[in-house]
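Practice problem: predict the structure.
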Amino acid sequence: TVMNLGVLYNLRGQSDVAEQYYRKVVDMDSTYELGYVKLGNHLLDNYKQEEGFLYLEKAVKLAPNDPQCISELAKYYSYNSSDTAREQAVELFSNAIETDPYYIWAYINMAWYHSNSRNYTEAEKYFQLAIDSMPFRAVPYHQMARFKSQRKQYDEAIAFFEKGIDVDQYHYASYESYSRFLERTMHQQEKSEEILKNAWEIFENSPLVAKDIADFYYRSGDTSEAIVYYEKAKVIDSSFAYSYSSLAVIYMNKNEFHKAMVNFKKAVSLNPYKLDVKEFLQNVQNKSIGLVSTNTDAALLGFNTILNEDPNNLIALKNIAKIYYISDEPKQALT
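Answer:
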């Protein structure tokens, strides 16, 4: 569907394209309240506050008894610093819960509101209410685990992460958050890797999971394994720009400038809104200049890569001449 295309492009990091699809949803059906919710939240996430709020209001007007519409509008109010807005947020969250006691996101959003207000007792109460309302879903355990992690209650956080995965092994966000928590907070690299590999056994056709594993290896300094999983992500979804841009960075750092350029140009063709060849060429140039005195072969490769894209680049030409001159190849330098 059109909505799912918006979600897909947003996951790929192509938020401008995602917005176009979300707008198509409400253009195609002006009575579809969840279309307004999705568009409103997307606009808010991309710092278009006023317009995003208007779409959330529209959703509630279309479906005044829909707990999701009510809860999302309440969440917007909860981020406002004014007392009036925050009181309205609590009222709307309460209305959403009363409308549907099994809509867990109303409890979860209310819990985060209280957490952000440093009312941690109330926050934990609402996280627990979310678990009690849907004990067979991973989402409330995952959210409670995140809360416990923020409170530095690490043993309890681990217990909730593992409980969430135990009750629903198909909720990938639980694996991703748990792995990140183990890596960055607990500094347990091997356990973090294990959690991601467990996820891969279930989600081996997901480019996002492959990307997360590749990112993990890249952060760990294992670029060989990172390349393997970025390549897997490319095979699964050849239009996933992030894989190509990440490979470009790795290859540039390895002084493999031609491979870097090929991957980056492909990334730009897939996501021209966020990526710029000129900026990448500048990075190649800076890297190549730093190699002139230490690795002339790699520097030449870098400057020639630049010339393939920009034949009149004077800095590349001058540095190539300099390399040939210091290498006792005056004829090449003159050329």
